[in-house]
Design a protein that fits this description.
Helix content is 54%, strand content 13%. With 271 residues, it is of the alpha/beta class. The structure holds NADPH dihydro-nicotinamide-adenine-dinucleotide phosphate and (2S)-3,4-dihydro-2H-pyrrole-2-carboxylic acid (A1CAB).
């Protein structure tokens, strides 16, 4: 088991990872982070006991460095990290779009890099994370990352060439489900239900549907057909969804997210 882990940029995803590792049995003394704002650092130290450090300390003390800043903030962070990093330290990037080649160009020769696309259900131990090795990452490095992330959800290995698509599907995916739930609650309001009732009905329906998908092994089409009675209510709703192009909208939306992930990577091609 790796010992010390440092998260550079403890925002939403960084905090979710650190708190999940703590819950999963990691020693608090082995978990550290860097943050831009002292108030945010103090908040995390008070809430969990994690140690706030600077980049040189993180680079010296950690076996695994997890980069969790926004892709737009990567350049100054790599400037700080490069002169301090030991070539044996494993670097794990959670950043959308950023290729392992960017890290390999900017960090000491031979540093192993693993690219990960997680998602926010990490907060409740239900993340979906996809991991890909960079040029110097071995099977052992992938196993280390798998072990780390399996504490906060499921992990799959994918070739790095698929990471932009993964980002569009599961990285952003929770947002699409939240959007759908939000719209369905609005529909309840339109039909005159109290908001609290509409919320309860839709959230439990979402939990039930997700659990059926995860546990029955049935295809989503089979599950949907089981709800759709001849000349019943559901088919009337499905006709409207098709008429309004919801399926085509999802295809276009996810393609746009994939394109944006590729673009974020290209923005750092010369870095
Ligand atoms: N949110 C999500 O659903 C997912 C996000 N990701 C990826 O994870 C990464 C983080 O996303 P998210 O957690 O949402 O973003 P956040 O903005 O919540 O977290 C990033 C944090 O890093 C801080 N920061 C920025 N630069 C530095 C620096 N040089 N040193 C220390 N801290 C710094 C930011 O401070 P400040 O507030 O000042 O900006 C912020 O607190 C992104 O690259 C994103 O693509 C991946 C999968 C899902
Ligand atoms: O919207 C984003 O860019 C990040 C990456 C995946 C989910 N959130």
């Amino acid at each position: 088991m790796t010992n010390a882990i440092a998260v550079l940029g403890a925002g939403k995803i960084g905090e979710a990872l650190l708190s999940g590792l703590l819950t999963g049995g990691r020693r608090v003394d082995d978990l550290m982070f860097t943050e831009r704002h002292p108030e945010r650092a103090a908040e995390l130290t008070t809430r969990y006991g994690f140690r706030a450090v600077d980049v040189p300390t993180a680079a010296r003390a950690a076996d695994v460095i997890v980069v969790a800043v926004k892709p737009q903030d990567i350049e100054p962070l790599l400037d700080d990290l490069a002169p301090n990093l030991d070539r044996g330290t494993l670097v794990v990037s959670l950043c959308a779009g950023l290729p392992t080649a960017l890290y390999e160009r900017r960090l000491p020769e031979g540093v192993p890099v693993v690219r990960v696309m997680p998602n926010t259900p990490m907060v409740v131990g239900e993340a979906m994370s996809a991991i890909s090795p960079g040029r110097h990452a071995t099977g052992d490095h992938l196993s280390i990352v798998e072990e780390l992330l399996s504490v906060v959800g499921m992990v799959v290995r994918v070739p790095e060439s698929q990471q932009d698509a993964v980002t569009a599907l599961s990285g952003s995916g929770p947002a699409y489900f939240f959007y759908l739930v939000e719209a369905m609650i609005d529909a309840g309001i339109l039909l005159g239900l109290p908001r609290a009732v509409a919320e309860k009905l839709i959230i439990q329906s979402a939990v039930g549907a997700a659990t059926m998908l995860a546990k029955t092994g049935e295809h989503p089409v089979t599950l949907r057909e089981a709800v759709t009675s001849p000349a019943g209510t559901t088919i009337m709703a499905i006709r409207e969804l098709e008429k309004h192009g919801v399926r085509a909208a999802l295809l276009a939306a996810i393609e746009a997210a994939r394109d944006r992930s590729q673009e974020l990577g290209r923005q750092h091609e010369d870095g």
